[in-house]
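Encode chain A's predicted structure.
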Amino acid sequence: MAATPERADGIAAGPPAPGRWLLVTGAALFAIALVAAGAASSRNALLGLGGLAGLVGLGAIVRFAPERACDSLLVLFIALVAIPIDVYLGYVSHTGGWPGFRVSAADVCLYLLVVAVGLGALAGRVENAIPARVLVWMGLLLAQYVVSALRAPDVRLGLFEVAGTVHAFLIAWLVAALFRRELTSWVFALVALQMIVHSGLAAAQGITGRPIGAGWLGGNTELLHEVLRTGATRLRPAGLFAHPIVYATSLVITLPIVTAGLTVARSFALRALCAIALGLGAVGLVLTLSRGAWISNLVAITVLGALALRCRLVDARRIRAIVAVWLVIGVLLGAIFGPRIWERMTRSESGNVEVRFDLNAIALRMVGAHPFFGAGLNNFVETMPPFDPKGVETYFPAPVHNLYLLEAAEAGVPALVLWVGLFASILLMGLHHLPRMHDPLLQWLVAAIVSGLAGLLVTQLADFSHRLEPLRSMVWLDVGLLFGALQANRGRRLAAQHEAGGR
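Encoded structure for chain A:
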């Protein structure tokens, strides 16, 4: 009979008694029931249930597989990041960036990872994976934001946006530090599942004309309708997102990842999951009626194809297969939605475009008046009136629908330069290392993320959705995955060189 292990103090340290775990489980279930029953809303009930379930799951992981705790938290964060289960502390009614200090279900995992990574960094077991030059761009942009926020008419709104930026950079840093190659298939699968959830609901909304899913997690309970010059009204679904533009932009950054997953997956289950997600995502993209997202998605998929060819990630047979898949999707979408697409392109109200030009003019006046620090971070709507001779604020109180002009107007021309420089450094880093990578799985992930980010930069010429959650968290998750994949590739290369040298 094997001896019972002992703790340092000499007390036997055998496995816990089954009765103790049954008691813990029963208490947790009872607490969950109390939270669900006492919650003032379904949203609060979901937050309570999710939090308690997460704590029970984390306790089980720490007890039975502590070496997998960080991996499990990271996977759970990726799974939850696109689901807008969140609350805003200190909420201020506002259109634009963060209207309060945001706490989401995914953030529970994030902040637990902060503790774990902090301890790992102190012990020398966790390394920074984001290049120094990118960190410099981040630091300079954050410093510019802080100065602009403190000079803003409403300092609270400025500080909320500073908090949002810190949150975004924290996501990228943690994900990059913790990502491992073995998690790549999880990334493909979870992104595909997110697309299926949002796009499945979007398709149901479009088919039935009812707001199925809208308001389940808070936010808008009604869907947006587009009125055309013909007098016809077209519903614009959004899945679980608050606005169809945010949903459409999320598709721009995720469709390349799902396409890469379908191409590189070895298991039938993952291929099937990605194929279903691609079909639903393509339908959802059309139904959003977002012309900017249509163009940007075409850019993203074209960039992905060009990178795949340049890096020889595909042979002739696979190229034909990928082209065939997208041709089939295109033909089907054209046959089903062709008239709706044409109607959107040729019969949209001209006022929708004109108001954007009016907002652009307001932003340019702000830049002229406050070129160095802007009119105030996250304060565009609050500072509009002196720069708005046409009174646009009275019927369209919203930030300029061009993120580049928004950066310059709110935080000054230096902020615009720093924002563009930051994303340029991220993309150039990915493009520089991509041809030199030797792991096709990681190469596909990097190529897909670079392609999605390129599409995102195009969308922001006519939008500011990067400021909105959960899209911003999704974007910076991708940035973290990009640098994590590059570091994982370096680790595999060094290991291979060491093994070869040992021979």
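The chain has a mean pLDDT of 84.
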